[in-house]
Every structure is written in C-alpha cells, then in structure tokens.
Amino acid sequence: MKLKGENQESSDSSEGARGKMTFPLALVALISAFGSSFQYGYNVSVINSPALHMQDFYNQTYFERTGVPMDSAFQTLLWSLTVSMFPLGGFFGSLMVWPLVNNVGRKGTLLINNLFSITAAILMGTSEIAKTFEVIILSRVIMGIYAGLASNVVPMFLGEMSPKNLRGAIGIVPQLFITLGILVAQILGLNSILGNAEGWPVLLGLTGIPSLIQLLTLPFFPESPRYLLIQKGNEEQARQALQRLRGWDEVDDEIEEMFQEDQSEKEEGQFSVLSLCTFRGLRWQLISIIVMMMGQQLSGVNAVFYYANRIFESAGVDINSIQYVTVSIGAINVVMTLLAVFIVESLGRRILLLAGFVLCSASCALLTLALNLQPTVPWMSYLSIGCVIVYIIGHAVGPSPIPAVMITEMFLQSSRPAAFMVGGSVHWLSNFTVGLVFLYMEVGLGPYSFLIFCAICLATMLYIFFIVPETKNKTFMEINRIMAKRNKVEVQENKEELKDFCTVPGRQAERKEISSSKL
C-alpha cells in the first residue's frame, strides 16, 4: 500500500530498490534450492542408471543369507518398493509441512529437514558394505519425506522473501534446481562414471553433500520476514530481515502491507487443513491448486520419460548411446526451466501455464499417432522424437514450475502452510498413482495411453483459462481481493488504522504502540 502526498516519492524510490535482486536474496535462494530442491530431482532419477547393478546386489545378498537365488517375483516386488517408496515418503513429508513451518518457521524446517537427507545418505552409501538391501528401501522412504518437505517449504520460504516483481522468477528457482538434480544424477549415473557395480553406493551416498552445505550456511541468513511479523509478532526482526534482503533501509511500505494482510485475516486465525477445506473464502484457491497439481503430475511427464528410451531405440539410436541421449533430454529440461525464470515476470504465470499445457496436449496427441504408424511409416520415429522434445519443453516452461509459485501467491500467511500441505499431498499422491497405474495402462492401451494424458492436459488448460487469474506483479492482498470476488466474499481490512503507519522517520515508537494496541 502506498501513502499519498509527501510520502509518495519516498515510497516510489523504496519500491524501485525493493525490485532489485540483491546479493543476500540471490544467495539465500541458491542455498535453499541447492540444499533442498536439488536433492528432490537427484533422488528422482538416481536409481535409474544403476538399477541392474542394484538388483544384482539384492539377489547376491539374499543368496548369501539363504543359500538359494531370489525368486524373480520377489525381486520385482523389492525393486518396485525401492522405486515407489520415494513418492510415498513424499506424501508423508507433505503431511508434516503445516505443523513444522508454523512451529519452527520456514528456515527452521529446512534445517531440521537436512537431518533426514544426511541420515539416508549414510545408510545408502554403506548399504553394500553392511550387506543389507532393506536399508536402501528404508532410506528411499526417508528421502521421500525429505523431498516432500523440501518441495513445499522452499517455494513458500522464497516466495515470502521475494519482492512482488521478482516473486515468479525466484519461485521458479526451486524447480530449476530439481531439473539440475535430475541432470546431475543422469551424468554421474553414466556407466563410465558411477553407474556401475562398484560406483552405485557412492552415487546414492552423494545426496548428503548438498544438505551438509545447507546445514552449515543457511543459519547465517534471515527467516521469512512475513513469518517473523505476522506469525511471531516480531516487527523489529522482520524489519531487519527485510532491510538485509532488500539492501535498503526504507522497508516501511512492505511492513505496512504485511500489517494489512495480518489485519484482513485476523478473525480466521491459523488455518488447519480441515478449516481450509471448509472455508468459503478460499474455495476457488483450493480447487485451483488441486487441479494444477493433479494436472502437473497426471499430464504424463513420467510416462514420456519412460517411453523416451524405446522411442530413441526405434529411431535407430545405438542402444549404448541412449543413456547420452537421455542426458541431452535432461539438459533441455534444465535450459527451458532456466528460460522460464527469465520470462515469467514479463509474460506472466497464466500464459506459461496455458502455453505449456497446450504444447503437452498436442505432443501427446501426435505421439499417439506417430507410435501407431511407426511400424509402417519409418520416418514417424523421428516425429516421435520431436514430440518427446516438444512435450518436455512445454512441461518445463509451465506445468512443472508454475503451480508451486501460484500456491504461494494465491494464499495469505495464515492459510499458506495448510495450502502447501494440500497441494504437496496431491502432488505426491498423483505421482505415486501414475507410477502404479501406468504399467497397466501401457499393457492394456499401448500408445493410446497418451490420449488419456492429452485429455488431462486439455482439461487442466481449460480450467486455468476460465478460472485462474494472473498474479504477476501483484501483492498478496491484491491477489486475495481478486479471488474474494470469485468466492463472493468480502475482504476484511481496516484501512483507517493502516494509514496511521506513516513512513516518516522518527515515528517508529508510535508505529509499535499502534501495532501492539490495535493489531
């Protein structure tokens, strides 16, 4: 909120400074994303390359214990558990978001979360020496819990720290590091590096290093200013955190906006998941994040990656070179997510989401056609490769990075933790469902499976087009007012009280007196 008259000039200059990417803000974004989000991506793909060597280890360990080879059905079950325990752990991690971020803060949650990752890394790294495959499955659950927390808390933490004109770009940084994590795991997993019989325990154990770095460096950076002011009631610490993040002393207008947000939601208090689901004033926000998170995971991204190797093989790519092609696809994913960081503030969230889902939908439809005609029309295999690349480009610029940004922006401080808990749970359950169901879909439907993904992309795109507003360069309160009209409710705010928070130097004592007595 801006003050009129003599304070307009100082407010405008303050806003100009706020919009800059300062070194402390950039550093805290990089440390948070590298220490947390990177590991989500790394552990998504780290077991793909050494899968055969790990299964040999399972079989050998079982043989040494029992004296008989492992039954193939039992081995398939154990490997399915190894893969599926990660998204299941992610679901449990999402359920821990609300209590942790409200009690120990955003930064505190990230620091505690590192203990999960370091523990799992030690267990996985020593599993071969200890001759136990059970700890690998247990560690995958632990890493899933870690990823479930990280995938929700990092976007929340960075979104609350960012100025409104950089919130989208900074909000995509976690997704950028997820794609980087996938790429690094693919590179290190090459047969010539660590994706071999001797190197796979090291490959799994490396996941603890980013957590250790974050554990040692993040304590030197401030907590979320919004958490400090609105939830802890500590204006002085919030002011100091903002001044450090903005590189500017005049942060009164942002403090005012936080007080305005606090005042507007004072009657509701902190939302639990149950109260969030039953509160009319947040109905469309809640439906929107559920639709976007389901659309993100049920749009077939995992299926496209699953099919990619076979598509490249059918196009004549040498079987020994396919792993390098997979790395190239990972690199395209990183480059397009990086592009999204730079264009999200100019094009907006809606355009990237709509364009992304349109590209994904069209790619799935064409891929169905190309895969069916491939046996009779040789050049269709190249169209299949093109469809895979276009799909990954579409998903990387919109459906992958934007939904988490939208959760941050569509909810205020009191409801944001519960919203991330719901969104995260939907994300991980949908991920788990695709992993469970797709193999059966492939057997029953073959290439026609992609028509289902095409329909889901189209339905999600239509919902976003008609319901989801543009949130670019708007404050949380401005977005809240837009959604309040759709929910047919009034936003509670006391503008007369907020006008008393003057930004003229020398009135800090008066500000504190007013805030303690009236707010």
From TrEMBL:
Family matches, as Gene3D superfamilies: MFS general substrate transporter like domains
Subcellular location: Cell membrane, Sarcolemma; Cell membrane
Single GO term (MF): fructose transmembrane transporter activity
Residues passing through the membrane, by range: 21-42, 77-98, 110-130, 136-158, 170-194, 200-221, 286-309, 321-344, 351-373, 379-397, 418-441, 447-468
Domain of life: Eukaryota
SUPFAM superfamilies according to UniProt: MFS general substrate transporter (SSF103473)
CDD domains hit by this protein: MFS_GLUT_Class2
Alphabetical list of Pfam families matching this protein: Sugar_tr
Main localization category: membrane
Example GO BP: fructose import across plasma membrane
Keywords: Cell membrane, Membrane, Sugar transport, Transmembrane, Transmembrane helix, Transport
GO cellular component annotations of the record: sarcolemma
Family under the similarity heading: Belongs to the major facilitator superfamily. Sugar transporter (TC 2.A.1.1) family. Glucose transporter subfamily.
Name under which the protein is recorded: Solute carrier family 2, facilitated glucose transporter member 5
Protein's organism: Grallaria varia
Gene name of the encoded protein: Slc2a5_0
